[in-house]
Amino acid sequence: MGIGMLACTSTQAAEDLVYKLPTDNDALYRGENEAYYMYCDRWFEGKQTQPWEAGTFGFTRNALRVHDGRIFFTKLHEGIDVKPIRRDANAEPLDDVRPIAPGIVAYTSSSPGASNYGRYVVIAHETKEGTIYSLYAHLKKVSCEVGQRVAYNDTIGTLGYSGDGINKVRAHCHLEICLMVHSEFHRFCPSTNKHGLFHGHNLIGINAADVLLACKEGKSFSIKQYFNTLTEHYRVRVPRHCTPDILLRHPFLYKGEWGKESPSLDIAFTAEGIPIGVYPCDTPIDKPAVISCRPMPMMQKNCTMNRLNGKSTAAYLTPAGETFINRFIWQESQEEAQPSSTLP
Description:
The protein has helices at residues 2-7, 33-36, 185-188, 208-214, 223-227, 245-249, 319-329; strands at 42-44, 47-49, 58-65, 71-77, 80-82, 96-97, 103-109, 119-127, 130-142, 149-150, 157-159, 173-180, 203-206, 234-239, 264-269, 275-281, 289-293, 308-309, 316-317.
């Protein structure tokens, strides 16, 4: 856990980074999306297709036609799937996988059956807005070690097809760019967790393609500025027993006045569950509750990963949603904690 804990604390000397492509496949920069993203087999209304869009970030899978005829997708794909461009005579992928930015290897999993990610690597990147994590999954081979400092051109693994539901034909590098939910996740997560802080439930992905394209011309990327462009889908009010761990690591998320007391906090989320703002609130509350929700032409469970349910005017947290929110506000002792009035 040492590297993960260390990587959760940013330094004043850190700067925004330039993020580069994880493999030699540069079709993304040319707008050749079908050559960049690995397709996913889709069966919908009696037809089979292989859309490259299913390899992009967001709600791209599990099609649903609503009452007015429009088609939505209800399953979130939290990363992007990068196609290989090199294979041997047996169609085995050969592409090297490299860090998208300099950092420290925070975690590696070399067991292909230990998670849906298969073999994967997580790298911690220090920025002035806190530590950002990149995750590289479905690897054929892991070629780095925890604690190792890596640079752009270092090889950290080989693109592959480890993990559930992936075969040689659909070999790809699944890339995520993430924020960590809680630096104590390993203390309150389910006992089945084999990956400590770096379980997928503790890493919230943003659109990696947005980041890579923003850096195409060598410009650095500001996560704070990027978050200001994202759309709020719902807002949850939570009791403020303490300062949420994510604010200690990413103070830019707080939209209030530092040091001002408030009995509760409102956390704004995108539909994908990205926390884009935390606001002080003077209204006390005993347990987390949805206070606003973007109108949608379907039940909220279909566009929030089943974290909300009901119609937009009366949305509420599902059990999965309660678990999700509690990951952000967990503290060691709920009973002994006092309301926190000081933020860093």
